[in-house]
Amino acid sequence: MEPPDALHAFRRSFYECLHRREDALFELADALLTADAAPSPVHLSLQAPHRRGWGSLYAALRRGQIDAEALRGLIASHPLAGSAATPVFAVDVSVWDRCDAEKSSPERGYYYHPSRHSAGQPIVAGWAYQFIAELNFVRESWTAPVDVRRVRPGQDANEVAAEQVKAFLRLWPEEERVAPLFVFDAGYDPVKLQQGLEGTPCQILIRLRAGRRFYGDPSLSDPPAYVGRPRRHGPKMKCADRSTWPEPSAEHHCEDAAYGSVRVRAWAELHPKVQNHEGRGSRRPLPIVVGTLILVEVERLPRGESRREPRVLWLWCGTGRRGRHRI
């Protein structure tokens, strides 16, 4: 299908997802896409695509109806151009700061914000939204947001992410046979995510802090000096202590124009000790969640980042289905 025809078909399908006040909502979407900045919703009624009065805009926001599931399915059926053979999606939380809106913004929470500060601390009051966006390997800044959910105060972002990913995969086109890869930042818990996505046809990759510790299979440890209960944890591997690192299960070297020499090592069949879990305080055995630990090292950072020294990158690779993840 040619690009103009594909765009026309997408807009027609989008219009069919609007069930009430559809004309006003459709023009409001065009105004949002073409506006440079909108201090308030009424400013959107001044945009050229919005041919109605400002009253119809507020009526559409108040009384309009959108078939959210149909809209999610429509967006999921249009992958990002230039994506790899294995689709890659990023999952992260973005905060909409609402510091001075106590009455008009209920259920606010306190979240970290990289640029907005409150009383000298990078913490703001606002709403948290969790996005799923498709990525590609083209050197550009374009992404394709495919889903968004509100993370309310008191909710666990890991549990919301697991449910969000499973709901998105139910809309995944049937012709897609490759399990997609979902990447997460260091604020997510690899154990909770892997447990929440167990049995789901997907792969996960999570960035870790450098001070984590992991353990191998108990069979790799020496026999205990005394008789007692069987071991549940094998040799300890400290990410910050190279002397504790065993031989990697896999290793890869390559040269990159931007990063120079790149070295990737992986240790399979490792697991962390779990502290915060559902059975905490019940004296039941701690859950063992096995995955692959990955270390990425580069010679230099790309041009423009010469003021910073390259750091090592630790990653956790897991899968919703045991034994089916690939590195």
Structure, briefly:
With 327 residues, the chain is of the alpha+beta class. Helix content is 22%, strand content 27%.
How many strands? 14
Unreliable residue runs = none
Radius of gyration: 24 Å
- In whole angstroms, the N-to-C terminal distance is 34 Å
Order of helices and strands: HEHHHEHEEEEHEHEEEEEEE
Provide the residue-averaged pLDDT: 84
Secondary-structure map:
Elements: H1 3-16, E1 18-20, H2 22-34, H3 41-44, H4 54-63, E2 65-66, H5 68-76, E3 88-97, E4 109-112, E5 123-135, E6 144-151, H6 157-170, E7 181-184, H7 190-196, E8 203-208, E9 213-215, E10 236-238, E11 250-256, E12 260-270, E13 291-298, E14 313-319
Parallel strand pairs: 3-7, 7-8
Antiparallel strand pairs: 1-2, 3-5, 4-5, 5-6, 8-14, 9-10, 11-12, 12-13, 13-14
Protein model, in words:
The chain has 327 residues and is α+β, with helices and mostly antiparallel strands. The chain folds into three domains: 3-66, no CATH class; 83-178, no CATH class; 206-319, no CATH class. Helices cover 22% and strands 27% of the residues. It has seven helices and 14 strands. The strands form three sheets. Strands 3, 4, 5, 6, 7, 8, 11, 12, 13 and 14 form a ten-stranded mixed beta sheet that branches. A two-stranded antiparallel ribbon has the order 1-2. It has a two-stranded antiparallel ribbon with strand order 9-10. Helix 2 crosses helix 4 (54-63) and helix 6 packs parallel to helix 7 (190-196). It is elongated. The protein starts with a helix and ends in an 8-residue tail after the last strand.
